[in-house]
Amino acid sequence: MYDPRRGYPIIVPCVLYDDPPAAARWLSAVIGIREVVRASLPDGWVGHVEVERDGLIILLGRRGGQFVDTSSLTQVFVDDLDRACEQAVAGGGVILEPPEDRPWGVRQAVVADPEGQRWALTRHVRDTDPATWYGRILGPVPG
User: Fold this and answer.
1) Model pTM greater than 0.70?
2) Confidence band (pLDDT; 50, 70, 90) for 71?
């Protein structure tokens, strides 16, 4: 699903909210986006919502945890995650989360650039069934 070689966007902005579903409803009414993926726990708590318009994806994430002091980050798919992390540090950045395999089929690291903007450096590893990470596909997703 998250494979840029099959059409998933290479760059995906992630905007953080206290209530991602409310943000998705508001954005739908205002700019005509549509919800395509929702990751929610069995008790209904929603971790993130992915919305789409004209083939572009925006991830509406939940503020808090490791993202308590930021309002956004940008996910960028890279071919060589370890090299990208090395280059981030060599260029004055900081690794906030080292590369780690994620349940949704990617290997990912979070870095801050020299001015503190956050970047989720990501590499697609394998396709997964969203149900295994409490996701639900609600409509066609690029890639």
Assistant:
1) no
2) confident
